Fold this protein.
Amino acid sequence: MTERRVPFFDLAASLNPVKDQLDAAWAEVYGHGGWVGGPAVGAFEEAFANYCEINHCVGLANGTDALELALKALGVGRGDEVIIPANTFIATAEAVSNVGATPMFADVDPATLLMRPIDVEPMITPRTAALIPVHLYGQPCDMAGFAGLAEKAQLALIEDAAQAHGSRCDGLAPGALSDAATFSFYPGKNLGALGDGGALVTRHDDLAEKVRSISAHGRSIEDRYLHDIVGCNSRLDTLQAAFLSVRLTRLDEENNHRRRVRDLYEQLLPASVQLVKQEPGRVSSNHLIVAEVDEREDFRRELETQGVQTGLHYPVPCHLQKAYFEGANAPSKPVAESAARRIVSLPVWGQMPEEDVVFVCERIGALRR
Ligand SMILES: *Cc1c(COP(=O)(O)O)cnc(C)c1O
């Protein structure tokens, strides 16, 4: 028995390399007193747009609002259907519901657990208004396929990239082939704030302008006392923007480290523990490293007693959540439902010590030979 403990991720440790810069960012924002908006927000938006190789980034309060504002700005609302995967964080569905539209849950690819164009195409009806592929665990969906489908059926296309900062599909960053891509800066995400934060990126000038206006009370760009549309208050906090600019400078390095962690897991895990597949041509942010195992609850409990913390993303698919379950009529999504019982997320973060990965694999190997 050993004393070693491996947390699922270690947020405090991941801030250590930039602690002085975060303190300086805090001192600067505190000093200038512009605590909403101001240069820190604009500077982060520009830096993150550059990072995403795209012309517009609009900072927002969180990733859920980013999805909701994208839908609103694209005119999706009451009476519309929006197709999303059954296995995503509930926020994807909430955003659709909160604009008055209906989320339609698609089943997913058994190998990658991602929604595919072939899962979605038969679900398109005259009421379908938008598709939201989710780049789950950090691996991008087939965006060329979705862009083709959206164009053919005249649908809005929004990428939920909340877990996929720095990902690439055939060399393209989120937002390159869609109307918009949305990000979350929740602390546990690859690029995390020290509180809530989010953003939308887009190639389209008019969409960027509209989302920015909605996020600031529907304010007209020409005159701050005129409100052209009904908006809300969903701005990226100034202090969080200053922190995010600091953390962005290390994102690629941390993503590369996550890649090494995934490679190590792939080498060292026993054959009875298979990682969810990654497709060639896709660069994942490796936000989560997810395996499929038999007797998942025993597996987690035994690892916990060995000092290894694991996570679940997500144990109940959205269509089976009470908020969305429509009784006996809910069509089953066999792949998402079976995966939900088998998946387990292994520890990973931007500075995870490699000896911890080795330790986790040893403990798993001892459980399952
Ligand atoms: C985190 C997350 C969101 C929501 O982001 P918040 O910033 O927490 O609102 C949306 N979709 C997915 C897939 C997420 O992982």
In short: The chain has two domains: 13-106+114-248, 250-367. The mean pLDDT is 96. The CA atoms of residues 151 and 250 lie 36 Å apart. The first helix runs from residue 11 to 15.
